[in-house]
Amino acid sequence: MSRPLHPRFSPIPATRRASAFTLIELLVVFSIIGVLASMVVGLAPLASAKMKEAAVRAELQKLVTQIEAYKSKYGVYPPDGVTTVSTAQGPQLVSTSHLSPLFYELSGVYITNANSPAGYFVPRADADDADGIRSADLATWFGREGFLNAKPFELRNRLFISDFKDTQSAEIFRSKTDAGYVDLEVLAVGFSTDASGKRGGGFAWPNNRSDHPIPSNKGLNPWHYVSTSPTNNPGAFDLWAVIPVGRDKVKIIGNWKENN
């Protein structure tokens, strides 16, 4: 007759042996978790870029709708930015797509005689411009001396009005102490900061590139707009965003079929 085993030497039940992990199994599990984690971390920037791109496409459609509504009111598309160049046929106006008064045309401005007999334009949507915008500054930067969507303050209810978030526009200067500073803004695809101190987001222009659209504010990435002889939409307007991809490449998202 065999003697019973002491409890200290009792065999481990089969169910307990089956549920235990060996060191090798644990190392395999940790390795798999590490691989999956590295894949997630690697895909995160791509997912973020795709979300930003989707936001740009949505913003493009909103701007197109606002521009078409503007045309319904005034019978023409908003004026773009222009400059005069010398050609064999003589001086000609060409569009400066990256410097356009589209922000002001869509949001509206007041005309005031304050501070100058010649008067000033005061943006309805921007309280920072309390001193107004001079026609001379508009001519220098936009090639226009005024706005079509402008009314005296007493007739402000007749303005065509589009509201924009603070981060949708930025000043063309990075600092108020810069030489030649003027308080002008453009619609922005993205920017880091501007002269007013506000911070943006979206697709700011990388500082490590040398082809800044607006060198006075190197982080500013403006919306491009052409209504004077547009290339892709004759008789209408071209509107597009330029999205930096890496150091040397860009992606264009525009209101024409080939890029939508």
Describe the structure.
- There is one protein chain.
- This protein has 260 residues and is an alpha+beta fold.
- It has one domain (53-259).
- It is 27% helix and 20% strand.
- The strands form 4 sheets. Strands 4-3-5 form a 3-stranded mixed β-sheet. Strands 6-7-8 form a 3-stranded antiparallel β-sheet. Strands 9-10-11 form a 3-stranded antiparallel β-sheet.
- A hairpin with a 3-residue loop joins strand 10 (238-245) and strand 11.
- The radius of gyration is 29 Å and the shape is elongated.
- It starts with 13 loop residues before the first helix and ends in a 6-residue tail after the last strand.
- 30% of the residues are buried.
- The model has no long low-confidence stretch (mean pLDDT 85).
